[in-house]
Amino acid sequence: xxxxxxxxxxxxxxxxxxxxxxxxxxxxxxxxxxxxxxxxxxxxxxxxxxxxxxxxxxxxxxxxxxxxxxxxxxxxxxxxxxxxxxxxxxxxxxxxxxxxxxxxxxxxxxxxxxxxxxxxxxxxxxxxxxxxxxxxxxxxxxxxxxxxxxxxxxxxxxxxxxxxxxxxxxxxxxxxxxxxxxxxxxxxxxxxxxxxxxxxxxxxxxxxxxxxxxxxxxxxxxxx
Length: 224
Ligand SMILES: [Zn+2]
Known about the structure:
The chain has helices spanning 3-13, 35-38, 66-77, 83-96, 114-120, 124-136, 159-165, 192-203, and strands at 59-63, 106-109, 145-147, 170-172, 180-188, 208-216. It is α/β, with parallel strands linked by helices. The protein has one domain: Rossmann fold (3-Layer(aba) Sandwich), CATH 3.40.50. The strands form two sheets. Strands 1-6-5-2 form a four-stranded parallel sheet. Helix 4 (83-96) crosses helix 6. The longest helix is centred in the middle third of the chain and has 14 residues, at 83-96. Zinc ion is lined by residues 18, 20-21, 23, 33-34, 37.
């Protein structure tokens, strides 16, 4: 079955719903959220915080608060991977609304350690990245980056300790040589996870890494 037929089949089985109010949306709805609910997800304005985690300017679709935060909790801890489809779609729409020049060669999601993957059954960052890449027509690579060390949750750790916690936690493959990569995760707070992934990719020869997360968290929130 070709991919568009398969997509059509899936959308019959799982029609697109606004995750906040459950209104049914057309399968090609660009934002993935109905108009009133979209108002609950204000865009992150880059000038609100001067934090640039990686060397390039990082991107965040929303602020980690209210409905945006609640969606992450549902996606990560309440076994509702379907909400990620709308979240990835909104990430694409917000990406398109900015003038960002040539897109990445590859979209890569922050990986989970296999033990956490088995426990959750899916990688929430991968769900966001897949929908985002599909909407944007960007290529995605699921195997280029691996998490080789299971690390404790970052919540409650200081910036320094978050970084130490992630030391040598990721390994990249040489397929990233010369690539401009957009690295996707759910939430960035201090950016320690994005930084650790970026270092692993640059070490193997990636040309440029930009981070893009669903939300920008404030310190003490549950992102990394
Ligand atoms: Zn809605």
